[in-house]
């Protein structure tokens, strides 16, 4: 027995522009399913305003109430449904079942997009009237892994984007041709040429490790080395920190589960960060009530257990889990500006899931914030960095000095960090 595939994921759009869309997932359970679903929802630029999550270890039933973080991006609801289905275990196992379509953690292939256009201000979020190339690539469900920019003597610009495909269809000629055709149609007279091909073997593995200077790495990841409140202050130089996240443990209410009652400041990707942390620490979440925003704060009830199905009674395990949750709720992303030789470099870091996946939409949000500040990017790349017991995804942006913002000014740098943090966290 089972339910039809079309009923595994149901999407009911709100009747009004301000009404949330309800996404329901009803399927067999698997380890980390909630995290995988939240990651896809975040990747599509959606904010979870409320959620109900229930599982008995065999079957999972989740309801998300979601709204768009920004109305500027066109959202393909059918593609969202397909992506959610791709990570949901099938209700009936067919004779032929392609496990690659169900949450494979293999690194996706990297493709090189060569985009030649007339010179313009802002190489990612340009000054076109309606669209920019980063926005278009995001709408097409591509993730930018690395970027290089070259300017020709006749002031033409060649952008080299190393991208991966959320749909995993770039191996088909149709997907490649449709992408180039769509870019040419969007940018019209600005576009001179567009080519898309598989990147060379030197770029196939985008998870290269970063060689950050020791002092820069210490500043970027110093929060991990201390639990003092001053650490949070350092990470929020321009933005006053919210009150501490509160996690209360109750092992008496339920005979089979440990209850965590959480109160914290609301931010984009909050539910994803909580489920990601649970997944990485091998904690099973049996039931979650994720309430609506009240005066900027969220209240959550998490009923959790160990992988053996028992409640968590080990004080050290509980303390470590609560400490990691608080860290993720207070500062899931790190943002600093430093000098790289004579250049100004912006660094943004976020934790990587144990399966190797980074946080969605960081590249898009950072370049959007820089566009609003009138700051151009000379080059950008994504690398990995390992600290004491975890791995980070580090975005490195070399900023163009030829802008109206005095990048050497401490006050200007604090304002840039503040704007980027607010954009990333949805404040």
TrEMBL record:
Source superkingdom: Eukaryota
Pfam families for this protein: ACR10_N (PF24914), ACT_ACR9_3rd (PF24931), ACT_ACR9_C (PF24926)
GO terms for MF: amino acid binding
Keyword Repeat found: yes
Stretches of the chain forming a coiled coil according to its record: none
Domain ACT per the UniProt entry, residue ranges: 11-89, 344-426
Keywords: Repeat
PANTHER family with a match to the protein in the record: ACT DOMAIN-CONTAINING PROTEIN ACR4-RELATED, ACT DOMAIN-CONTAINING PROTEIN ACR9
Function: Binds amino acids.
Protein name: ACT domain-containing protein ACR
Organism: Salix viminalis (Common osier)
């Amino acid at each position: 027995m089972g339910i039809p595939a079309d009923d595994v994921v149901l999407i009911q759009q709100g009747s009004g522009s301000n009404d949330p869309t309800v996404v329901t997932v009803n399927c067999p359970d698997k380890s980390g399913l909630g995290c995988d679903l939240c990651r896809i929802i975040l990747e599509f630029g959606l904010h979870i305003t409320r959620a109900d999550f229930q599982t008995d270890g065999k079957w999972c039933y989740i309801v998300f109430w979601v709204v768009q973080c920004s109305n500027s991006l066109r959202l393909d609801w059918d593609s969202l449904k397909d992506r959610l289905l791709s990570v949901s275990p099938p209700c009936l196992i067919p004779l032929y079942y392609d496990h690659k379509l169900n949450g494979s953690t293999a690194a996706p292939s990297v493709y090189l997009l060569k985009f030649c256009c007339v010179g313009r201000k802002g190489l990612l979020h340009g000054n076109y009237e309606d669209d920019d190339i980063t926005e278009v690539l995001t709408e097409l469900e591509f993730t930018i892994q690395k970027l290089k920019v070259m300017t020709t003597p006749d002031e033409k610009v060649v952008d080299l984007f190393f991208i991966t495909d959320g749909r995993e269809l770039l191996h088909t000629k149709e997907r490649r041709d449709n992408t180039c055709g769509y870019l040419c149609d969007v940018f019209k007279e600005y576009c001179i040429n567009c080519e898309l091909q598989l990147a060379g073997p030197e770029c196939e593995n985008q998870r290269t490790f970063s060689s950050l200077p020791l002092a820069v790495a210490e500043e970027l990841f110093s929060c991990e080395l201390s639990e003092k409140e001053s650490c949070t202050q350092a990470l929020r130089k321009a933005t006053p920190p919210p009150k501490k996240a509160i996690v209360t443990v109750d092992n008496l209410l339920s005979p089979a589960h440990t209850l965590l009652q959480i109160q914290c400041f609301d931010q984009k990707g909050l539910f994803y960060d909580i489920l990601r942390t649970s997944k990485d620490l091998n904690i099973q979440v049996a039931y979650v009530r994720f309430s609506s925003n009240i005066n900027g704060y969220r209240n959550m009830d998490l009923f959790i257990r160990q992988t053996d199905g028992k409640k968590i009674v080990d004080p050290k395990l509980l303390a470590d889990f609560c400490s990691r949750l608080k860290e993720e709720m207070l500062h899931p992303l790190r943002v600093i500006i430093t000098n790289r030789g004579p250049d100004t470099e912006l660094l943004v870091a976020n934790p990587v899931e144990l399966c190797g996946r980074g946080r969605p939409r960081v590249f898009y949000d950072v370049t959007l914030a820089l566009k609003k500040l009138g700051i151009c990017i000379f080059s950008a790349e994504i690398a990995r960095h390992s600290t004491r017991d975890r791995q980070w995804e580090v975005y490195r942006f070399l900023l163009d000095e030829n802008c109206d913002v005095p990048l050497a000014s401490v006050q200007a740098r604090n304002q840039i960090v503040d704007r980027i943090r607010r954009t990333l966290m949805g404040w």
